[in-house]
Amino acid sequence: MKKIFLAILIISFVFPINIFPQDNKQQGHTNTNKFRQLYDEFASPNMFRTASGAPGPAYYQQRADYKINVELDDKNKKLYGDETITYTNNSPETLSYLWVQLDQNVRKKDSPSLDINSEGVSVAYIPDSFDKEFLSDPFDGGFNIEYVKDIDDKPLRYIINQTMMRIDLPNPISTGQSFQFKIKWWYNINDHVKQDGRSGYETFPNDENRAYIIAQFFPRMCVYNEVEGWQNYQFWGDGEFALPFGDYEVNITVPSDHILEATGELTNRKDVYSKEMMKRYNQAKKSYDKPVIIVSQDEAIEAEKTFSNQKKTWKFSAKNVRDFAFATSRKYILDMMAVKIGNEDVMAVSIYPREGNPLWEEYSTITVVEALKSFSKYTFDYPYHKAVSVHAHNIGMEYPMICFNFGRPNIDGSYSDDVKFGMIGVIIHEIGHNFFPMIVNSDERQWAWMDEGLTTFVQYLAEQEFGEKYPDAIYPNKNFPSDRGPANMITDYMSVDQNYLAPIMSNPENVYSLGPNAYGKPATALNILRETIMGKELFDYAFKTYSQRWMFKHPTPEDFFRTMEDASAVDLDWFWRGWFYTTDFVDISIKELNQYFVSPNPGEEMKEIMKERGLVRNRLRPLIFFENFENDLENNRDKDPLENSKLLNNYLNENYSSEEISDLQIPKYFYEIVFEKPGGLVMPIIVDIKFEDGEVIRKRYPAQVWRKNDKEVRKVITSDKKISEIILDPDEETADVDTRNNSWPKKEENTDFDKFKSRIQG
Predict the structure, then answer these.
(1) What is d(CA 300, CA 356) in angstroms, rounded to the nearest whole number?
(2) Which of 447, 470, 485 corresponds to the end of one domain?
(3) CA–CA separation, 376 vs 239, rounded Å?
(4) Is 413 left (phi over 0), alpha (psi -120 to 50) or beta?
(5) 12: helix, coil or strand?
(6) Residues 732, 594: one domain?
(7) Total domains present in the chain
């Protein structure tokens, strides 16, 4: 059928005029359009990284293989170790020195990291904080390097700069060459409960046993690539890690009554497991529906009493991983079950003290299972043979195949929903880090959002799927209570004082609130892309393409941005710029609704336009005139919309044949909605239009509607029915910070919100 868009007929007679008098010309400007391409922000594509976002034909990455021996001194809380590193230079450059990370040095009592933040006297302190701040000696941590030698035991020259150690090579290593060297060290292990940290020990007051979660425990090679050269940015505490891939052979000696888990495959299981543990382990390998207890709570309680002076060495082998971590304690309960990922069996494992029960026994391992399934669904099949969840007090931290997770019940075993959902959420998140950055190996030291934001995004999807799989776990809630992901959960952060905001594309050390900036905001951005802008099918294909392109490689932000566009044919430069490179916020409003009536004669406004532009009636074809209801309120108050039909019928009878008229749709109502954008971010306009008979239609205008006017957009709605209400962003899917201006008729004024709006705009 033919459709007639009458409001356009007048516009077709509007001729361009010189709006700037000759004596008042404005100055020119560079391209500030928010839809311009990101050429200024992006590096040029090259043979290493292509314009499509894929690795190029000249892409390379270095390799670091480790043989490590460590021994835990449980009595004195020290860790001793030595390692042999084989470093292979695959770059096209010759290297005359190597850089090694000494992350434990952030804990030296004279570390500059202790003094980089502004501080003052608080008006009140909790006792632990007061003791730490004013009464306790600084913890004496950091690596004590005993030697650095080549493979022939000849000393190598080295210099330590804070958390980095440069090793000067006796002879440069060329492309394709390898260099072997040895390091011996020890350090004091920190109490991660009292002194914070991503690893350390916790002492349990009821039995004086300790649980150790050990990471960053050995000198580790820095990344060298064509983007940064050596990534030797100091470890200040917030920015995490950039690491090359390699194979690990690690021997860990601990008290003989300890239970231990670590990155990699346990190669001497029969030596460190009892016969009963081996029997249960073999059962667990065939159990796909529920966990099998390998070490029971009663057995762990008995072990707590022993404090053995004997030692036992656990041996692990890990292939193609970027890091290594382990956890050990005589307090640990151990359970496992199998999960099918693709065509392979993966062991889902949990270790936890009795203080974690009954919560951990009930939920930890099944959460590992569901996390592996969900993340594999949206990225690639999990390639390792196991994934381990370790109970740790107030810590959420990730390493290849193993992660440390919080969530502890009360002493009597009771726990709140917040504790339960917090534990399930953090396990999903930290297990998800096996995918980002343990396999899709981004530079955490520079771009926290590339692992935290992507993981948080898929975490949200996994949490909702967990809720569907285990509805009893979330009863009486209808959905898993995710605290990040949906658009309306980031609006509070996006509306804080601009003085305390940084773009997502910021180094984590320079961000005021790393949680919402690196986790919440990018997760919300990706959720909006998937749900609102791209659609699930296009987004999921592009996201999986990125994940699979960069498995076991080192992607940059540009590789992600380019791949998402290349695999979807959706131009997203405007989105990346607004959400990732600025601190702009979303605020779109309904400025006004105008109703128009067809008129046989021009109104005063039209007369002025015709006079100014030299228009005459009956030029080419008769003009159709509209009168704005708002502009002539008194005269049009009682105007019957049927008059529109009458006047149009007269017009049509004069200009169309009966056959043509029968194919036309003739509306009774003509409306113009004026949308305004006080916020800086361009977003799609999503609006529900409700008519007086109760019918609701949804209109979706793409973000590109703002490309020629960044402040205001007008849209015409024609209908046979009268509009009674309009709601903008009805499902709160665009992260609009001011929902008060999202409706017509407008809601009552809110003084508190006016103050809030003044703050975010100022």
Answers:
(1) 12
(2) 447
(3) 26
(4) left
(5) coil
(6) yes
(7) 3
pLDDT top residue among 484 and 670: 484
pLDDT given at position 650: 72
- CA pair distance 577, 315, nearest whole angstrom: 48
Give DSSP secondary structure letters for 530-564: IIIIS-HHHHHHHHHHHHHHTTTB---HHHHHHHH
Please count the residues of the chain. 762
Q: Is residue 37 part of a domain?
A: no
Q: How confident is the model at residue 751 (pLDDT cuts 50, 70, 90)?
A: very low
Longest dimension (CA), the chain: 106
Query: Residue 488: which domain range?
Result: 42-57+448-580
Is the omega angle on the peptide bond into residue 557 within 30 degrees of 0, that is, cis?
no
- For 235, list phi and psi in degrees, rounded to 5: -85, 105
pLDDT single digits (tens) 488-515: 999 999 999 999 999 999 999 999 999 9
Structure tokens, 195: 């002194």
Residue 441 pLDDT level (bands cut at 50, 70, 90): very high
What are the CA-CA distances from residue 36 to residues 29, 452, 553, 573, 586 (Å)?
A: 14, 28, 30, 7, 19
- Picking from 393, 412, 447, the residue at the C-terminal end of a domain is 447
Residue 587 amino acid letter: D
> pTM of the entire structure?
0.91
Q: How many whole angstroms separate alpha carbon 272 and alpha carbon 263?
A: 16
Question: The sheet that has 589-599: what strands, in order across it?
Answer: 625-628, 589-599, 669-676, 712-719
d(CA 375, CA 44): 32
Q: 620 CB contacts (<8 Å, ≥6 apart)?
A: none
- On whether residue 26 sits in a domain, the answer given is no
Same domain? For 679 and 739 the reply is yes
Element counts in the chain: helices (H) and strands (E): 20, 31
pLDDT digits (tens, 9 = 90+) for 339-375: 999 999 999 999 999 999 999 999 999 999 999 999 9
Do residue 547 and residue 627 come from a single domain?
no
Alpha helices in 433-572 (DSSP H): 449-469, 471-474, 491-494, 514, 521-528, 536-549, 557-566
pLDDT value at position 756? 45
**Same domain for 537 and 496:** yes
Distant-in-sequence, close-in-space partners of 115: CB < 8 Å, separation ≥ 6: none
- Regarding whether 574 and 603 lie in a shared domain, the answer is no
| Three-state secondary structure call for residue 403 | strand
pLDDT at 617: 54
> Are residue 239 and residue 374 in the same domain, yes or no?
yes
**136: DSSP letter:** S
35 in any annotated domain = no
Same domain, 501 and 638: no
Reduced 3-state DSSP string for 180-207: EEEEEEEEECCECCCCCCCCEEEECCCC
